[in-house]
Design a protein that fits this description.
Layout (H helix, E strand, L loop, with lengths): L2 H10 L1 E7 L3 H12 L4 E4 L15 E2 L3 H5 L3 H17 L4 E10 L4 H16 L8 E3 L1 H7 L10 E10 L1 H14 L3 E3 L2 E9 L2 E9 L5 E11 L5 H8 L7 E12 L8 E4 L8 E6 L2 E5 L3 E2 L11 H12 L13 E10 L15 E5 L5 E5 L5 H15 L34 H10 L13 H10 L5 H8 L2 H4 L1 H19 L3 H15 L6
Parallel strand pairs: 1-2, 1-10, 2-7, 4-12, 10-18
Antiparallel strand pairs: 3-6, 4-6, 5-6, 8-9, 9-10, 11-14, 11-15, 11-16, 12-13, 13-14, 17-18
Helix pairs in contact: 2-7, 2-10, 11-12, 12-15, 15-16
Length: 516
């Protein structure tokens, strides 16, 4: 992907479909539309997956909680999509075993029966059977579990992935199918002719240049910011999104040795809590805090961090404290507003909705990462009707995602590059490179790859999304940032002033990831 070339194409050409938003939903729609042979453009105001799509629990799951809430259709859809994603991106999505520790005699049978239903719903795309396990087996799988009153547990399977890396792979998949994608290209207005939307005014956030992009259909895939685009179309439009903040903390592996995750089925606020091994750290979360304000970089609140520590501590013999937190991150769920007006965001369905405005603007609302492909398919199906495009069937159900590689070595930190990891490894070895950090792998060749192949334009792009350094250890990432900026400047042909500005911006950005 080359940003300069794509920017020129956006200014020169007209498209069948213009997608606003480069998160999971927008990228899924771009892949679907391009795979069907339509002329697709996508613009993202910041970086790909800058918002919610890089701040998930890193799980591809049907949703055990949704089953408990009786949202059967969502669970069936999500389980099917989970299976397809494991099939289409085996280098980024893997089978992960979860253990639900049981402290009451009825817990294991209760969840055991429910998870057998979960297994049946997955059908042929299931990842493995659930089973009730003994006290001894539970301790073997999750040795740091609180043993007081422990009776045993239930083991089940779900999927795990690297959200930002999947986003970049989806962008590359769309690009390979001739979609034109551009980050740091912000929509500042919509173009209309005879009350119909025919394009958008776009501002290059790096140069401030404003230009027009015209298309037969415009799709709004901006997540928690969907209402901003809807109000560009109609200033009187009602709010459609209810943001909910989810916070996660990152701990070292000593808090969850082994390769099994913990699922706590009932926290003090009625949600579930996960402790998940991911790369070489442990992610623990999440919260559910209704918010009015929306921000690309939401900040974890003290009470949210305390909630996670307190609830995790109830199930761990080695209890985490604030001093143990390597990083903390917050994301906003773009929940489609409920017609009931309920104040409880945990009760709001994760089903997505497709809204078509009188002007022809298509908006995709709500949803969850696991169902991104179906959301993209539904968006394009609606675009065919609105734009009177020639009908073509969806191609993404069995479509390999960029980097597709079967049976990757999950212990290799380069596995996220899939079939391209050998090229990067070869360059690392040829140049005899050393990792810039002793705490996590980050080689100069990874930085060069991000800049040259993955449209990384800023220091944050590299350290937060092309690599996941800021999540592995926020303080360590700030420490190595100057050297990363120097290397980026070399690859991008930037000067000392650029380095200074990038370091200042990154320091302000990363402050939210460091627990004081």
């Amino acid at each position: 992907m080359n940003r300069a070339e794509n920017l020129a194409l956006l200014k020169e050409e007209a498209f069948d479909i213009l997608i606003i938003g480069g998160g999971a939903t927008g990228l899924g729609a771009a892949v679907d539309g391009a795979a069907r042979g339509y002329k697709v453009a996508l613009v993202e105001g910041a970086d790909f997956a800058k918002g919610t799509s890089s701040k998930s629990t890193k799980l591809v799951h049907g949703g055990v909680r949704y089953l408990q809430n009786g949202d059967i259709s969502l669970v069936i859809e999500a389980l099917r999509e989970r299976g397809l994603l494991c099939q289409n991106a085996p280098h980024l999505v893997k089978n992960l075993s979860f253990v639900i520790p049981s402290y009451d005699w009825w817990n294991s049978p209760f969840y055991g029966v429910g998870l057998k239903i979960y297994d049946l719903m997955a059908g042929k795309l299931g990842l493995g059977p659930s089973e009730m396990i003994s006290l001894e087996e539970t301790l073997k799988h999750i040795p740091n579990v609180n043993q007081e009153g422990l009776r045993g547990g239930v083991l089940y399977h779900d999927g795990q992935f690297d959200d930002a890396r999947l986003s970049i792979s989806l962008a590359q998949t769309a690009s390979k199918n001739d979609a034109v994608l551009c980050n740091y290209a912000k929509v500042v207005g919509l173009l209309k002719e005879e009350a119909e939307v025919v394009g958008a005014k776009v501002q290059d956030a790096l140069s401030n240049d404003v230009f027009e992009v015209r298309a037969k259909v415009i799709i709004n895939c901006t997540g928690v910011f969907a209402d901003d685009v809807l109000k560009m179309d109609n200033p009187e439009a009602k709010a459609t999104i209810r943001p909910s903040q989810g916070v996660h903390i990152v701990l070292d592996k000593s808090f969850l040795p082994g390769d099994k995750a913990i699922m706590v089925p009932q926290t003090t606020d009625g949600r579930v809590l996960f402790a998940v091994p991911w790369h070489d750290v442990v992610i623990v979360g999440t919260t559910d805090t209704p918010l009015e304000q929306r921000d690309l970089d939401p900040i974890a609140q003290e009470d949210e961090i305390k909630f996670i520590l307190d609830n995790a501590g109830m199930y761990m013999s080695k209890k985490p404290t604030k001093a143990d937190i390597l990083s903390v991150f917050a994301g906003l769920r773009p929940l489609a507003a409920s017609e009931s007006g309920s104040d409880s965001t945990k009760e709001v369905s994760r089903h997505h909705k497709v809204l078509v405005s009188p002007s022809g603007l298509i908006s995709v609302l709500g949803g969850k990462w696991t169902t991104y492909r179906k959301m993209g398919e539904d968006a394009i199906d609606n675009a065919l009707v609105v734009g009177a495009l020639p009908p073509r069937k969806c191609q993404t159900e069995n479509m390999p995602i960029h980097g597709y590689e079967v049976a990757p070595d999950w212990t290799d930190p380069l596995h996220v590059y899939g079939s391209f990891r050998k090229k990067i490894r070869k360059r690392i070895e040829k140049n005899k490179e050393q990792s810039l950090s002793d705490k996590f792998p980050l080689y100069p060749s990874m930085i060069r790859w991000a800049v040259k192949k993955e449209m990384a334009m800023t220091l944050e792009d590299v350290l937060a999304r092309r690599t996941r350094a800021i999540l592995f250890d926020a303080k360590e990432t700030r420490k190595i940032a100057p050297e990363v900026a120097r290397l980026m400047a070399q690859y991008l042909a930037k000067d000392a002033r650029w380095i200074t500005e990038e370091l200042a911006k990154f320091h302000a950005f990363s402050d939210a990831y460091v627990v004081k």
